[in-house]
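Take a specimen:
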Amino acid sequence: MIEIPPIVAIVLPLFGAFLTPIIAIVSRRFDVERKVCGWFMVAIMIAMLLVVVSMGARVWGGEIIIYKLGGWDPPWGINLAIDGLAFQMALMIAGLGTLVAIYSLAYMKRDSRFDLYCTLILLITAGMMGIVLTGDLFNFYVFLEITCISSYALVAFRRNSDAVEAGIKYMIIGSLGTSILLLSITMLYGSIGSLNIADLGQKLAMAKAGAEPVPMILVVALALFVTGIMIKVAMVPFHAWLADALTAAPTAISALLAGPVAVIGIYWVARIPYLPFGMPVGVILVALGIISMVVGVLMALVQTDFKRMLAYHVISQKGYMVLGIGLGTTLGLQGGLFHLLNHSTYKCMLFMCAGAVLHRTGSQKFDELGGLSKNMPITSSVFLIGALAISGIPPLNGFASKYTIYLAGVDAGQPIITAIAVLVSALTLASFLKAFSSVFLGQRPERFKDVKEAPMQMLFPMCVMAAICIVIGLLPALGFNIAGPAQTAAMNPGNYISQVLGGT
């Protein structure tokens, strides 16, 4: 039996991306270009989501779904492998990508190059899906480049001076990160002779178990791999590009970049145990996580731009994920991966709220806004839910994952880590209360008295994500049921290796 869902999940958006320009040319003759392209994009995303969901029961049952390209067995052939960790990421990419696509129907309808926008959205989605489903490092690099190139174009999509500057900065720093990753992958192949993740993991484990010390080239390869990932993840001190990119990009793109795109690097941080290089990386990850948490929230506190404030909180919240994974314990990994899901949901939603305000008022500056809760009650309510969720206030989903990370710090004998994490959450709450007050409370400027609520196509995905925040907060077992298999997979790479190589 040939397992086709993994390859279909990648081919669907890739095929859609190349078909969109043709659809645009044909539909332009009937003056329905934007409507047809937009709904085609949404249809492709929904189909991809259904394909991913179809794999859920088997993966949660402990099976690893393997697709062999060309029928060649790994490690000689290229393969896709979907375990609990890959499935969690694929589900997040497909789900949030679908909601961003629906949101874009209204938010981007004024743009004359909407067909290009739809093409890039589908292309970046295909790249992200390939990153998390691939079973070898070289194709990880190929799909990473597809994702990055699409991201650069989307950040600079509006082609004004700020957008072009942010896009170029993102491209330069992003290219540095991918170059470092490629160098690391090259060194691994030169010393081990394989790029298949399972085969690499097996051979590296054998080298680690031997009497000989681990070769220095493998230590350098790990250092380069972690450095490249940290640049792509935008952890402090590699964070300079992120705030500019998320501020300048169209807000629908900011939501996508702040949600699934921002955390696919975290996925590869969790994959590092699959490649036992022979040296611990936990201390490095914990240190970077704490620094990013603190620096990100302090920078957010002093911002006067709505989207820029949210961008710095992306950096801060990713610190929680890396911290949890870096602790290396069951609680730490579970908390970090659960927080990855929660962050992607409410951060995507918060950027959509900022986009709704910008869409109706034309401003994202705190000192130009105020009193909008009277005009935009749904948007203000959704933003408040997201603000409380990201601050870790019960009974919302952010509390469940953050509390797990707090417990992980105590369980690891590092209560100071828990204290810092709680303090950062308090500062996060202060920052969002300031933002909520500046935008939705207080005196409303006279020029905004006739402002209307956001269109339904923008409100629908926002409300869906708000509902997810509430439901998972009240029933955290639902979130743990998704993050649990991912945590199990991250802590048991031997199962992945045996099923991928032994199932041949």
